[in-house]
Write a structure and sequence with these properties.
about 280 residues; globular; binds magnesium ion; 11 helices; binds phosphoenolpyruvate; HPr family phosphocarrier protein
């Protein structure tokens, strides 16, 4: 059975009712992107860019090269801008000690504390995109203003550096609960959404995702209700890129919410496609 699932990994995942579900991969660098290709990913749903350069602050030229290699590999790539803070640290980014790092300087909030870093990253991404339909995604967005600011920041870089970007798309992670109450406005601003169930669940249930003893119930109906509401209210494409999307046990429930794109770790792709075909 396992070898059959493996052999079928490049075939599309179509449900019994004939609905095609897109299965994308979560990756963090060129090697994992190559692995994703080998495992049957139809695109990159989440490039966690914070893991591209782990030791030193990269120069722009190296960043361009890294992004270009990944954009060359897949036609559909969603690259998330640096998401440090909380559970993710980088040696070259100085975040002052905080009492509650998960409620502190994280993700897009870096725009306030370290704009130069984001500026260089966005410049590299936009140059490497070379006006292909690359998707740029901002993490930890909590208000429409924050998204507007981040997108304007990117548009300004493109204007100043004369980089054509009319095919580039801008979207956001849904991982902060405040977003749920402003979806109608977000619909007018974003090109796409990706639900980060890891952080969304953390903030919904007020349980740290890395807590040593408290565990979030990944199968809580509350989480599925939230996903269903997002899919219903969103007028732009929605994908799920949190760990939940790669959990074979919940695929029937997830598809019931109406979501059509899942982004999962490469090792799961064959199994998830197999599961979808049986729904
Ligand atoms: C998430 O929060 O669900 C997510 C996909 O992002 P990360 O795990 O990188 O925070
Ligand atoms: Mg997250």
């Amino acid at each position: 059975l396992h070898s059959e699932i493996h052999q079928n990994r490049f075939n599309p995942a179509i449900t019994q009712k004939g609905e095609k579900i897109n299965i994308f991969a979560n990756v963090s660098d060129l090697d994992s992107a190559k692995e994703a290709k080998e495992e049957g990913a139809e695109g990159i749903g989440l490039l966690r860019s914070e893991f591209l350069f782990k030791e030193h602050k990269p120069i722009i030229r190296d960043q361009i090269r890294a992004y270009r290699a990944i954009f060359d590999l897949f036609e559909d790539v969603t690259v998330r801008t640096l998401d440090v803070g909380g559970d993710k640290a980088l040696p070259y980014i100085d975040i002052p000690k905080e009492q509650n790092p998960f409620l502190g300087i994280r993700g897009i909030r870096l725009l306030k504390t370290d704009p130069k870093l984001l500026e260089e990253q966005l410049e590299a991404i936009l140059i490497a995109a070379d006006n292909r339909p690359v998707k740029v995604m901002f993490p930890m967005i909590s208000t429409p203003e924050e998204f507007k600011e981040a997108k304007d920041f990117a548009l300004n870089i493109a204007r100043e550096k004369d980089i054509p970007i009319d095919n580039v798309r801008f979207g956001m992670m849904i991982e902060v609960p405040s977003v749920l109450f402003a979806l109608q406005e977000f619909n007018t601003l974003v090109d796409f959404y990706s639900i980060g169930t890891n952080d969304l669940a953390q903030y919904l249930f007020a349980i740290e995702r890395t807590h040593p003893t408290l565990k979030i119930d990944p199968h809580s109906p509350i989480l599925f209700n939230v996903i269903e509401r997002i899919v219903k209210e969103a007028t732009k494409p929605v994908s799920i890129c949190g760990e939940l999307a790669g959990d074979t046990r919940v695929i029937p429930q997830l598809l019931k919410t109406g979501v059509q794109t899942l982004s999962v770790s490469s090792k799961r792709i064959g199994q998830i496609k197999d599961k979808v075909r049986n729904v």
